[in-house]
Structure formats: structure tokens, C-alpha cells
Amino acid sequence: MSDLHAAVRTPSRLSTAAHRAEASSVVRPARRAAHRTRVSSPPRVASAPTVRWRGGHRRAAGHRAIVASVVAMGAGWLFAILVAPHVALSPGWRMVALFCHLTCLVVGFGAVLTVDWISLRWLFRREPLGSVLTAARGAHLLIWLGLVGLLASGAALGPDTSSGLVWVKLLAVLAVGVNGLFLGRVRDRLTVADGRPPWSALLAGVVAATVSQVGWWTATLIGFWSANS
Question: How far apart (Å, rounded) are the C-alpha atoms in residues 154 and 100?
């Protein structure tokens, strides 16, 4: 009877052991394959972020702001012309006003030349567009301080408004100021442009830079001529 029970139990035990051996033989190669796949797979590398110019975060000026700025500039320019004939300085104060006039010329015109030089290098693909925009943003305050200082110190020097050359110089200063506002708007368009800037903005920038150079050089040469005549 015991032999019969042993004969009955033995196959079941053998079948269970065989089943476990078969299952382990299937699972282990699968685990090894998965482990090899995880080891052999190359690590994920995060894509490098695209480098973009982040210097201009201010909101672009609207049409009303531009018109208001032009009107304010024209009013200040006209006020300086009307006040200039009534200003009488002593020789000492006149030297101070002349020194301030020359200093503002160096500051304002020097900043303009720096920005235009970097812009010219960008046209010849020597500098990225971001360098031009960064230089323009950094020199923005210097240019306006030089221009306003030129207007104020020039009015203190009492220019001869009956001379035609003086009027050409005054109109050149006004053109430089209005052109500066236009250049600020062009810079805003270039800042928000994705990828290659539009040709309309680039052409407007070239025209505005040319007007700026002509205006500054005209005012400088006429001022030099008037001081030595």
C-alpha cells in the first residue's frame, strides 16, 4: 500500500519540480535579455537649448507713443531755438558750455559710430545679429544723453539763427532725433523676429543708420566750420 502511495506521489512531485525548472529556464533568459537591453541602450542626452538673444524684453512702442515722442522732441527743439537768442553768457561760462557741447558730441556721436561699426561687421558676417542688438541697447542711453546735451549746450552758446548753415545744423539735429526714435522701433522688430529677420526690417535699419550718419556728420562739420569762421 505504501509503495502505491509512493508511486502516486512521485510523479506529481516530479511534475512540479519540472514545471518550476521549466519556468525558471524561461524567466531567467528573459531577465538577462532585458538587463542587456537596458545596459546596451545609450544614455539619453538632453538637447542643448537654442541660443537666442535675450537682451530686449521691453514692450515695443506703439504708434501713439512714437507720435508723442516726436511731438515732445519737436517742442524741445523749438524751445531751444527760441531761447538761444536771449542767452548771454560770460566768457567763463561760455567756455564751460563749449566744453559740455564738445563732450556731448564725443559721447553721442561716439556711441553711434560704435553701433554702426558693429552693424557693418554684421553685414559682412563678422558679427551675429545679437551683438548688434546688444550694442544698440547698451548705447541707447549714451546716444540720447549726447543728443540732448548737444541741443541744450548749443542753445546756451547762442547760435546765429540768421545764418543758413546754422539752420541746416539745427535741422540735422532734429532729423537725428526723429531718426533715433525710428531706429528704436526697427530694433524692436528685429528683437521679436524668429529666425532670419524680414528684409523690410533690415532695409529700414540700413536706411535709418545712413540717415543717422549723414545727420551727425553734417552737424559736426557745420559746427566746426562755424567755430573757425
Answer: 9
Q: How far apart are CA 112 and CA 145, in angstroms?
A: 12
Residue from 217, 182, 177 nearest 203 by CA: 182
pTM check: above 0.90: no
The count of other CB atoms within 10 Å of the CB of residue 137 is 17
Per DSSP, the residues of 186-207 read HHHHHHH--SSPPHHHHHHHHH
Cell readout for 211 is 540717415
* pLDDT surpassing 70 at residue 46: no
- Measure the CA dihedral 193/199/201/206, to 10°: 130
Assign 178 a pLDDT band (cuts: 50, 70, 90): very high
Scan for cell 531577465, then name that residue.
31
* Cα 109 to Cα 219: distance, rounded to the nearest angstrom: 10
Phi and psi for 16 in degrees, rounded to 5?
-65, -45
CA distance 149 to 108: 9
Evaluate the CA torsion angle 33, 36, 42, 44 in order and state its sign.
positive
